Each structure stands twice: as C-alpha cells, then as structure tokens.
Task: structure prediction
Amino acid sequence: MITQIIQKFANAFEGLKTALKNDPSIILQFIIASITMIFFVFIKISWLEWLFVLTAIFIVLITEFINSTLEDMCDLLVNRYDLQVKGIKDMAAAAVLLAAVYALIVAGVIILRRLL
Result:
C-alpha cells in the first residue's frame, strides 16, 4: 500500500515535469505565477492577501492543466476537425479564462487597496 502511494506521487511529479517540458501554456502560467509572487513579496502583502493570491494562482494552474489535458486527449482521439471537439476545447479554455479573471480581480483588489 505504501509503495502504491509513493508510485502515485511519483506519477504526479512526472506529469508536472512533462507539462513543464512540453506545454507552452503551462510554462507561461508558471512564469506569470512566479512574476506575480515576486511582485507581491516586494509590496509586502499580508498573510490573508497571500492566501487569496496563492489560491488564485493554484486555480489558474489547475485549470490550465485540465485544459491542456483535455486538448491533448481530444487531439489523440479525433485527428480531424470536429465541431464537438472544438466546443469541448473552447469550454476548457473558458475555464482557464474565468480562473484568470478571478486572479486579476484578486490582484486588482490588493493593489488598489494600497493605492487608495
């Protein structure tokens, strides 16, 4: 049982490594997340603000992983243009968009509080 748990974690880390090697969208999201965290360290946000920032970052990253996975699965299963596949990919991309909007709102509220 312990061996199975360790293997599951190893598989998860392998997936993370594969994504960071091969998926430009995920790489971009990690770069943006890193820049965001450096910025918020610089302006010294509170622990509660960190909680919101980190939650927003993780939501964006998680949705990007799901989006990329769905896109890859669709490409593997259907190797021609298909309107249903397009709809699936568009909906997955919309999830990332919504997560990014949430992240922008969180960042905006934190920054505007300091300016006003």
User: Anything to note?
Assistant: The chain has one domain: 2-115.
